[in-house]
Design goal:
This protein has seven helices and two strands; from the N terminus they run αααββαααα. With 190 residues, the protein is mainly alpha-helical. The longest helix has 24 residues. It starts with 6 loop residues before the first helix and ends in a 10-residue tail after the last helix.
Length: 190
């Protein structure tokens, strides 16, 4: 299934896949491909960084769910539904997010560019950690990789991505994207 190019619909698709992986997780304390993170930490990352980004840049406060330590499924679902509600709100089309590092962007575009893509990439982390299907949309992988390669120096200097991992030249787009962001595409639980 190809992903939509409309931010609200793309989030619905990407977050829907991630939600399926959250619901399919049986052990939250298994290691993930992100060094030092468990499956729970993958979800914690997504539910903790974005609310502050949204509040400081657009003045939008997302509702908080239960603690991720108590109920990661409910914590994710409340967060996910709140982000979708922002994107589905007709007023979002008129709002902007302003950040000293990225300037001012239409709110839906900012959510799509910085948050939805993060959910997309972390879907692989959670899937791989928990033994679920880790297949990502190949066209979106290629699109993201193409854009990120053009800004590699900026991306690497941000400290948010690890060093590129070597993969075969004929690797598919998903493998190349994961390697670009510093994941070992062939990682398996220790």
């Amino acid at each position: 299934m190809a992903l939509s190019d409309r931010p609200a619909e793309r989030h619905r698709q990407v977050a829907g896949l991630f939600t399926g992986r959250v619901r399919g997780t049986r052990s939250w304390d298994v290691p993930s491909p992100v060094a030092g993170w468990t499956a729970r930490d993958v979800v914690r990352h997504l539910t903790e960084w974005f609310p502050g980004f949204l509040a400081s840049g657009a003045g939008i406060e997302l509702p908080q769910g239960p603690s991720l330590n108590e109920d990661p499924v409910a914590a994710w679902q409340i967060h996910c539904d709140a982000v979708q509600a922002v994107l589905d709100d007709p007023e979002t089309a008129h709002r902007h997010l302003t950040n000293p590092h990225i300037g001012s962007l239409p709110l839906a575009s900012a959510i799509d560019r910085f948050y939805t893509t993060d959910v997309f990439m972390h879907t692989w982390d959670l899937s791989r950690a928990t033994g679920q299907d880790d297949t990502l949309d190949p066209e979106f992988c290629a699109l993201l990789l193409g854009g990120m390669e053009q800004m590699e120096e900026v991306i690497r200097s941000s400290g948010q991505y690890g060093p590129r991992v070597a993969v075969p030249e004929d690797a598919d787009a998903q493998t190349k994207l994961l390697a670009f962001i510093g994941r070992d595409p062939f990682w398996s639980k220790p």
